[in-house]
Amino acid sequence: MPEAFIVDAVRTPVGRRGGGLSGVHPADLAGHVLAALLDRTGVDPGAVDDVYLGCVGQIGAQTGNIARTAWLAAGLPQHVPGTTIDRQCGSSQQAVHFAAQAVMSGAADLVVAGGVEVMSLVPIASPAILGAREGMGNPYDGTGWRTHFGDQEVSQFHGAELIAEKWDVSRPDMERFALASHQRAAAAWAAGAFADEVVPAFGVAADEGPRPDTSLDKMAALKPLRDGGRLTAAVSSPISDGAAALLVASADAVRRHNLAPVARVHAMAVVGSDPIFMLTGPIPATEKILHQSGLAIDDIDLVEINEAFAPVVLAWQKELGADPGRTNAYGGAIALGHPLGATGARLMTTLVHQLRRTGGRYGLQTMCEGGGMANATIVERL
C-alpha cells in the first residue's frame, strides 16, 4: 500500500491573547511558517500539489480561503492551489489526514498541511456571535436538532463540566494536572527541546503561555468559570495565536527530491461522539486507531492529546490506562496555548520532533473537537 511520509514540521511560537503575535495578520503568520517549512526542506515550492490549512474562525481576516491567501502572501507560486478546513479544534490534524490520504491515493506527491488561528484578532465563536446579532440564527435552533437533542446546552464548557462529573475528576486533580503542564513546558524550553520545531516569528522566539511561577495555591484562589462548577481558567486552555505546517510526501517524491523524512503516517482515524458531552471523542478515537493498527497503548512511546480542558485528558487516561509520563511530556495546551485551527498541526509538529529527539518509535496524537468528534493519528519515527 502506498505510504505517506512527513518530511519536516515547523511551528511558530504560540502567543498569548494580546501578546507578541496579536497584531500580525493571520495570512502573514501562516505565510511565515509556510515559507519557513519550504526553506528548511529545500523543496521547490512550485512542486507542491496542494495546500491544506485548518482555521476555525473563518471570518474577517481569516475568511476568503486563508490557505490560498497565506500561500500568496508568502510570495509563493500562484499555480499552487489551497483549501481551508474546519473540523473545529481538529482542523489542522484533519489537514494532515487529508494530505496523507491524497498522497496514499496517488492523487498528489507533495502536500503542505497545517493551520493558523489569531484568536486575539478573531475571537472564538465570532461567526456564530455575528450571525446571531444579525438575525441569522444559531446552529442549534433548527427543528431537527431540537427534535433529537431538545434544549440542552451545547458548549465546550458545559461538556467539560459533564466529563469532570462523570469521571469524578475533582478540581484538585485538574489543578495538579495543569501545574504539571506548565512545569513540563517550562522544563522543555529550558532543555532546548523545542529548538528544532519552533521558527521565531515577528519578534517572538518562544511560547508565551507557560507560567513556571504558578502554583496550586494560586490556582485554588481562582473563581470557577460557572457557579458551582469545577472548571477555572487555570485548568482550561488559554486564548492563543499561532501557526504550524508540515510537508507530506509520497515515496516517489522522497526519492525524486532527495528528501529525508522524519516520520511515516502509520494509521489515521476519526470518530463522532456525543455532541452534548462533546469532548469525549479522544476515547473512542484512540480505541479505534489502536484496533486498526494492531498496537496497544503500551506500544505508544509518546502521546500528544490536546488539553482543551484538564478533565478531557484525565478522563481519557482513566479509560485507556495510558502512562501519564508519556502523555504531553513537554506540556500541553493549558500551558502552551490552543490557537484553534493551528493546534492539530502544532501537536503533530511537537510529536514528530520529540520522537526523533527521544528515539521513540510510535507516537499518537488525538484531540477533542466541537460538535462531538475526534481525530487520532499514529506516526512512526524513521
TrEMBL record:
GO terms for molecular function: acetyl-CoA C-acyltransferase activity. Residues 5-251 form the Thiolase N-terminal domain. Residues 260-381 form the Thiolase C-terminal domain. It comes from the Bacteria. Keywords: Acyltransferase, Transferase. SUPFAM superfamilies: Thiolase-like. Belongs to the thiolase-like superfamily. Thiolase family. This is Acetyl-CoA acetyltransferase. It comes from Phytohabitans rumicis.
